[in-house]
Fold this protein.
Amino acid sequence: MNAPTKKAMPAAEGGELEENRDLTAGRRVLQLEARALSRLAQELDANFAEAVDILDRTRGRIVVSGMGKSGHVGSKIAATLASTGAPAIFVHPAEASHGDLGMITHDDALLILSNSGETTELGDMLQFSKRNKIPLIAIVGKAGSTLGESADVALVMPDEPEAGTLGLAPTTSTTMTLALGDALAVALFERKQFSESDFHVFHPGGKLGQSLVRVREIMHGPDDLPLVGPDVVMSEALVVMTAKRFGCVGVIDGDGELLGIVTDGDLRRHLTDDLLERRAGELMTAEPTTIREDALAAEAVRVMNERQITGLFVTDGARPIGILHIHDCLRAGIS
């Protein structure tokens, strides 16, 4: 007797089932980790503030360490701390046992990560901390672990399952560790009143750095300003305009305050036989658009794009102190 044959599943239907399983798994992981983070936030206690106190008092560097996945997370935490005004480095615990303990000074503080709190490779660092009275903060999964007991302050994560059917790979625990590191960094830089300009100092390159560039950093200063009085004839104004090469000339009164601006466009609109004999005050556009020196350069670009102009006088009140051309912004990577 022949066994009944299975009907083949259409390829499209099989693909849909796989997609549904993948989406279900992905959502389950995210929901589980979100629940763990919510619980972590609710259970945060005075130990967290004490940890921030230690980091704030540290006059050396914050030395972050961890093994395996905790180490990868630790590298990111160290980078976040360093980029927000708290000098920090990552030291691998195995390398520490082979000479890198010499990188840790009495002015430093240790931030050590381990979910189990029993990572063997951390032993030498724990002993070094105790022997040299170096403050130790632990981010750990078990308060009664070796790491938890050795720390001056232990930030204990709630007991939440790792994501996935096996429940073995570090997932939920590393997410909580990373989030606690972010929380420490943010609380620390807010306490230190780390400003936007401070942030720019540590992020001069890339999009972050470009977005924080101020007008004063890329503008041309007072010596480069193309300025004339309102009674100057255009033949003389054109000499100034050509020499400064910004495609415009500012018109100022006797007190040095900006009355208006004459641009290439104004010249074309007033192109008559007597153009060179006319006065700058007659041709100028009164009350021109200006920008503050402390404005973001990105704001200046937006203004120039909206007004369809290529340059802006930088003013302090009504007095011109600089000039910014769109090409200056483009050279700085701002567009």
